[in-house]
């Protein structure tokens, strides 16, 4: 639900197409960073 609203919001904005492509990927980048930090810290606490 959140993803559909997020992408429809960006499709209706009047932005530079390159900037729009970068901004659409920001939540995915934050998700990847959160996963990497979580996996690193969980491995560090296991040993």
Oligomer: single chain
Q: Largest sheet, described in full? A: none
Number of strands: 0
**What overall geometry do the principal axes of the alpha carbons give?**
elongated
Name the helicity range: over 70%
- Which structural class matches the secondary elements? mainly alpha
What pattern of helices and strands is seen along the backbone? HHH
CA-based gyration radius = 16 Å
**For the terminal residues, how far apart are their CA atoms?**
39 Å
Proportion of strand residues: under 5%
Tally of alpha and pi helices: 3
Q: Which residues sit in consecutive blocks of at least 5 with pLDDT less than 50? A: none
Mean pLDDT: 83
Describe this structure as you would to a colleague:
The protein is mostly helical. It is built from 3 helices and no strands. The termini are far apart.
Keywords summarizing the entry:
3 helices, 47 residues, 85% helix, single chain
List the helices and strands and how they pair.
Elements (H helix, E strand, L loop, with lengths): L1 H11 L4 H8 L1 H21 L1
Compose a concise summary of this entry.
With 47 residues, this protein is mostly helical.
């Amino acid at each position: 639900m959140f993803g559909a609203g997020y992408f429809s919001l960006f499709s209706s904005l009047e932005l530079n197409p390159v900037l729009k492509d970068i901004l659409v990927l920001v939540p995915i980048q934050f998700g990847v960073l959160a996963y990497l930090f979580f996996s690193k810290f969980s491995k560090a606490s296991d040993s």
